[in-house]
User: Fold this.
Amino acid sequence: QVQLVESGGGLVQAGGSLRLSCAASGRTFSSYAMGWFRQAPGKEREFVAAISWSGGSTYYADSVKGRFTISRDNAKNTVYLQMNSLKPEDTAVYYCAARSYGSRWYSGLYEYDYWGQGTQVTVSS
Assistant:
């Protein structure tokens, strides 16, 4: 069992930056593929970014490519999402997710085994 706890959300003006963190419990974090998803009010949860277990491979949704960066520190059992040039349409609850096996990144909701509780990101115009 893996527990995921997100932090770093908040209110920021358009054009600003935030860094989200997701701390994972468990001794096998380094073998997990990780992802970030988001859900805006009235919308379905959508993929944002993903990273392989080693950190050597990443993948982004087109809507965030060039603005967001996913990274991980396996020594700290933590995955990060650096968000720059934020836009009002980035407003959502952001969730991190973990997949317990696999060698690459994964972008599908149903490809992940564990989810955090989410952290709110609000971007004002």
Residues 56 and 102 are 13 Å apart (CA to CA). DSSP finds no helices and eleven strands in the chain.
